[in-house]
Amino acid sequence: MWISHLYLKHGIYNEEEKLRWENDDDSVWKYFNKIDLYVVKCNVMLCNNVSDYMHNTDLKNHLKHIHSHEIAAAT
């Protein structure tokens, strides 16, 4: 996503977008930690995948494709 690219590569960010990021309370965040502005770490089992943040949809796809068995077992 261009917002994370601008921040991570050029140190540029929009204060409104930063606040939206910091205050996002989507349920997907119980599986991910925000470790820096626009950088996330998966905390499911031993994954520890660290990546640039794209969209919550991308995070949900990670859970669906990589961790569907672990998440199903936990519910």
Characterization of the model:
This protein has 75 residues and is of the alpha+beta class. It has one domain (2-74). The protein is 48% helix and 16% strand. It is built from four helices and three strands. The chain has helices spanning 2-10, 15-23, 56-66, 68-74, and strands spanning 32-36, 39-42, 50-52. A three-stranded antiparallel β-sheet has the order 1-2-3. The chain is elongated, with a radius of gyration of 13 Å. It starts with a helix and ends with a helix. The mean pLDDT is 87.
End-to-end Cα distance: 31 Å
Q: Indicate the percent of residues in helices.
A: 40-55%
**Strand-pairing-aware structural class:** alpha+beta
Dominant shape: elongated
Strand order within the widest sheet? 1-2-3
Q: Give the SSE string.
A: HHEEEHH
